[in-house]
Design a protein that fits this description.
318 residues, three-stranded mixed beta sheet, pyruvate-formate lyase- activating enzyme, seven-stranded mixed beta sheet, 11 helices
Length: 318
């Protein structure tokens, strides 16, 4: 029941007809995903729910086939060059990590950054991939033209929780080192503690450890969200939970029996605790120097905190 074979990801060329996807009722207007499917294979990944709806594997097979939008940079350039383009905020990586291992080979995220920067379009990236440091040069260039931010997802520093719930990702400490690299380059880099897992990573001391580490790495801000489990994600996550932490299974079955999203009675205290910790530890934008666009009528500037408070919640898997 809980067998999880290790399989190398296979890549499949899948040219796209559109690069930018309109997003409704979120703090950003557009999403961009150069890849579909993710070799990180996090047990809690919300995209498994979209895969289930699309009648694609959402179990352990998810992430074994990565769909590569081979022409996405060309299509993106065309869309950004339209007279109707208003330079609205673009979120990169809402439905799959833009710096998963495939990026090392295909370099589509890098190409997208160059295109966004050239068009003076504000954007933000969310990732678990330290590979982002490879692109400090193009991120720096883009940040001189429009608002740019990078958010690293670091919900825990516990090696056992990380290893079992994020089996294909780089260790959290590597992500922290990547934050320092970006901060030293003047790029806005923050930490999203998402998703927090009740009974595993919501311990106050454990959350404090992440916030302190984020501050020490120079993160400009920290925010948090609690895991949500829609059909497709729920089954896979609970199967893995039953194998790795069986004592927690009854609690999760009770919490998520009739809902995918937990109520504010559970989520609210976690968010408040992280906000209080961030304030107590002095998390703030302390970059020694900041790469920012020159103010002007053609450059939209938005704070990074407005970019992605609910990672994945409104993201399309399109």
């Amino acid at each position: 029941m809980f067998y999880r074979p290790r399989m190398a990801a296979a890549y499949r060329d899948e040219p796209c007809s559109t690069a930018l996807n309109r997003v409704r009722n979120m703090p950003f207007a557009w999403s961009l995903n150069p890849y579909m499917g993710c070799a990180h294979r996090c047990t809690f990944c919300f995209v498994r729910a979209f895969e289930k709806v699309a009648d694609r594997p959402s179990d352990w097979r998810y992430g074994t086939s990565i769909r590569v939008k081979t022409n996405v940079v060309e299509v993106l350039r065309r869309e950004l060059g339209r007279r109707s383009w208003r330079r609205e905020k673009v979120a990169v990586g809402t439905a799959t990590d833009p710096y998963q291992p495939a990026e090392g080979r295909f370099r589509l995220t890098r190409g997208a950054i160059v295109a966004l920067g050239a068009s003076r379009t504000p954007f933000g990236l969310i990732t678990r991939g330290p590979l982002v440091v490879r692109d400090v040069d193009v991120l720096s260039d883009a940040a001189r033209r429009a608002s740019v931010g990078v958010t690293f997802s670091i919900p825990t520093l516990d090696p056992e929780i990380w290893r079992r719930t994020e089996p294909g990702t780089a260790p959290p400490r590597q992500r922290l080192r990547a934050i320092r690299t970006l901060i030293d380059a003047g790029i806005d880099a923050s930490v999203g503690m998402a998703p927090i897992l009740p009974g595993l990573s919501d311990d106050p001391a454990a959350m404090a450890e992440v916030v302190r580490a984020a501050r020490d790495a120079g993160a400009t801000s920290v925010w948090a969200n609690v895991v949500y489990l829609r059909p497709g994600t729920r089954e896979h996550f609970l199967d893995n939970l039953a194998r790795d932490w069986p004592e927690l299974l009854p609690r999760y079955e009770r919490l998520y029996a009739h809902r995918a999203y937990l109520g504010n009675d559970i989520v609210g205290p976690v968010r408040r605790k992280v906000r209080d910790l961030a304030s107590a530890y002095g998390v703030a934008d302390r970059r020694p120097w900041k790469l920012e666009p020159s103010p002007g009528p053609e450059v939209e500037q938005l704070p990074l905190s407005a970019f992605l408070q609910e990672p994945g919640q409104a993201a399309s898997a399109a």
